[in-house]
Amino acid sequence: MIVFITSISSFQIKDYITGLDMKLIFRKNFVHTRKTLRMTIKNISILLLVLLGWNYASAQTNVKTFFPKILAIPDLSEQAQKGVARMMELINRTDLSEAEDKELEILVEKYGEGKATAWDVIDEGCSWYCGGGNYKIKASSVLNAQGTNSYEAEAANDLSYKTAWVEGKKGAGIGEYIEYHFKNNSPRVTSIIISNGYVKSEYAWKNNNRVKQLKLYVNGEIYGVLNLADVKTDQEFAIGTFGRNPDGSDLILKFEILDVYPGSKYNDTAITEIYFDGIDVH
Ligand SMILES: [Ca+2]
Predict the structure, then answer these.
(1) How far apart are the CA of 204 and the centre of ligand 1, in A?
(2) Which of 30-39, 115-124, 130-139, 222-231 has the lowest mean pLDDT?
(3) Which long-range contacts (CB under 8 A, 24 or more apart) does 60-66 make?
């Protein structure tokens, strides 16, 4: 009897111990599986982060950064305006005296024969614009006209230093843009030249914002960032060769305001002119 009880007890104890072992093994396995699962999730997360970081870094490196070549300062002084007007007057006359002939020679030397007014951005003589140029322009917003001054997108596309596009959003106009469309058969563009701020007078230039950075989109894709200097002289950016898209579509160059140099009086951002140079002409 005692032997039987002992046997039962030893069996029960054995079973109990085996059960405990099983539970322990099961628990161990469960903990191990959970641990492995946690490690796997952690590894996948790290991998995803690395991939995202790499993607971000490569996206960043694809965005090019451009700095300008500073061109000659346009002479918009009253003296220059009078000088060019006098030069045009003499050019249009056929009865010049010897003294006037000499005077004309000096004026042409000083202001260039092609300029009909001191406000002209380019000479009327031969330039890339003889065969090239955009046919359409649009801006995301425009400041309301004030008196006789209007600030339409066309004002940054009229080859005149007298007029400027001014964005019309409240604040500095970060994110506002101006866009130039070129026909597919238009000569290709290699340079962008920018007359930054409202250059028509010292007062207008100082008191309005100038652009510090423009994001350049080519055919709808971000291409690069143009870093502009805070100067009244024109600034030229060599961007590579664009135009004549293989699919026959227009070339579209879009300039989005990223940052500005603040004006002393008005929080309005102005661009006097964006014009172009390139190849396929002559
Ligand atoms: Ca203009």
Answers:
(1) 13
(2) 30-39
(3) 63/222, 63/223, 63/224, 63/225, 64/223, 64/224, 64/225, 65/224, 65/225, 65/227, 66/216, 66/224, 66/225, 66/226, 66/227, 66/237, 66/238, 66/239
For residue 7, what are its two tokens? 């046997």
pTM: 0.77
Please give the backbone phi and psi of residue 265, each rounded to the nearest 5 degrees, phi first.
-125, -40
Please list, residue by residue across 151-187, b when 16 or more beta carbons sit within 10 angstroms of its beta carbon and e when fewer do.
Answer: bbbebbbbbbbbbbbbbebeebbeebbbbbebbeebb
Two tokens at 132?
């090239």
Ligand 1 center–CA 120 separation, angstroms: 9
Whether residue 61 is predicted with pLDDT greater than 60 in this model: the reply is no
Q: What is the pLDDT of residue 48?
A: 64
198 Cα to the center of ligand 1, angstroms: 9
**CATH number of this structure's domain 65-74+133-278:** 2.60.120.260
Q: Which two tokens stand for residue 204?
A: 């207008």
Residue 69 Cα, ligand 1 centroid: separation in angstroms? 20
Distance (Å, whole) CA 137 – CA 160: 15
- Distances in Å between the alpha carbon of 282 and those of 51, 85, 131, 146? 49, 30, 8, 41
**Average pLDDT value for the chain:** 87
Question: What is the three-class DSSP state of 238?
Answer: strand
Q: How many residues does the chain have?
A: 282
**In which residue are the tokens 């995202």 written?**
52
CA of 162 to the centre of ligand 1 (A): 6
Q: How far is the CA of 60 from the centre of ligand 1 (A)?
A: 33
Residue 246 CA to ligand 1 center (angstroms) comes to 31
CA of 175 to the centre of ligand 1 (A): 21
In the chain, domain spans: 2-62, 65-74+133-278
